[in-house]
Amino acid sequence: MARASDATGTSAADDLARDLRANGVRLIAGSLTDPAGVTRAKYVPVSRLGAFERSGMGVSPSWSVFCVDSGIAFTPTIGVTGDHRIRIDRRDVRVIDDGIGWAPGNLNDQAGTPVPLCPRSLLARAEQSAADRGLSARVGAELECTMVALDGGPATTDPWSPYGIRTSLDRSALLVDLAETAETAGLDVEQIHTEYGHDQLEVSLAPTTPVAAADAVILTRIVLGRVAARHGLRISFAPVPFDGAAGNGAHLHLSLADAAGPLFSGGDGPHGIRTAGGSAIAGVVEALPDLLAVYAGSVLSAARLRPGNWAGAAACWGLENREAAVRFVAATAGSPHGANAELKLIDPSANPYLAAAAFLGSALRGIDLGLDLPPEIPENPAQSDVATRPLPSDQRAALDAFEYSSVAAELLGPEVVEALVAVRRYELKTYGELTLADTTRALRLAWSC
């Protein structure tokens, strides 16, 4: 279903509810994605759509420190008291399954003001911050995931051919269902293919405004999960789904433009990068060690983020360099959306709203500070003579760097820093001493929708 009517007022919500009911919708889900990267939801009968929009549905503040399992990582400021509200906008409602409509939610206080722990509102502020500087931002997303059996084991044991026509045609019914369901849900899918890893899929989404892009990531995850279920499968968004398997990425592409045009093309710098565009890339690269916990902070993330995995494990940038954290895509005929910077080290355990806010915010910070574009790494960083900024060596180091980072506090706020550190430290305490095989088994479906 396309985006709902732009009309306002209670009567408009009632009209939309009648339209949705006529189309078979009986329940409306409003979802939040928490700092642990897990998407959670509340449902109301379609007749209560207006109430979901006006006053919202109550949730405990502890939702912001729910962990990947059933644990709760209480902090000094997040405990058992208080109340927040999930509020949705009826214009965002999509039909996602038989009888079910969905909309992304904002986390507000009881007066209707976004709370500091609301990732979606945080990204909206970053988007507005770009606009206040005279910049427009566009974000595109790539989602990698792994098909698994209903019991959580491998979906197939047949030999796998990366990007192979056989492996994709063997799943043609699922892929066609995915394309049709995504279109019905209003997703702008540009590409679907079987990936390098065994039973791995990738879906690429068209660039759009930052908040809409993060919304689309969550909606795509939901659609993938529902389609897979219809075909007797489940979808894993774990950074590493099985010990020894290829990892799943959640790459984001960022482009910026001002009144004079794109910042990443039309200039005198390398590959046409303008001065402000170079500063944006510099800001992203400089902040990577401080923000790694946002992009790849789960207990499984380090197993993916290794040299040789094409995961962007080196804090540097380079033209079409898949080993660099920032892969630059130049404005050519092969890039229909123009030049952009792709942040490769993000994995699906990241909250996409927080990851996009950190990505955009660090680019804007680089522009504000007038940072110089660092030297390009045109080859494999592991074989380069050019020194790169080291990333934290493990998840504990990444969390320490994030917790005490002034950049993280500036871009995300101390409340988000506190909550994210709490849930990730819980993961390390609970799963950090297990073998990778045991951890992947325990968390294979933790981030599934």
From TrEMBL:
<protein>
    <submittedName>
        <fullName>Glutamine synthetase GlnA</fullName>
    </submittedName>
</protein>
<dbReference type="Pfam" id="PF00120">
    <property type="entry name" value="Gln-synt_C"/>
</dbReference>
<dbReference type="GO" id="GO:0004356">
    <property type="term" value="F:glutamine synthetase activity"/>
</dbReference>
<comment type="similarity">
    <text>Belongs to the glutamine synthetase family.</text>
</comment>
<dbReference type="InterPro" id="IPR008146">
    <property type="entry name" value="Gln_synth_cat_dom"/>
</dbReference>
<dbReference type="GO" id="GO:0006542">
    <property type="term" value="P:glutamine biosynthetic process"/>
</dbReference>
<dbReference type="InterPro" id="IPR036651">
    <property type="entry name" value="Gln_synt_N_sf"/>
</dbReference>
<feature type="domain" description="GS catalytic">
    <location>
        <begin position="119"/>
        <end position="449"/>
    </location>
</feature>
<keyword id="KW-0436">Ligase</keyword>
<dbReference type="InterPro" id="IPR014746">
    <property type="entry name" value="Gln_synth/guanido_kin_cat_dom"/>
</dbReference>
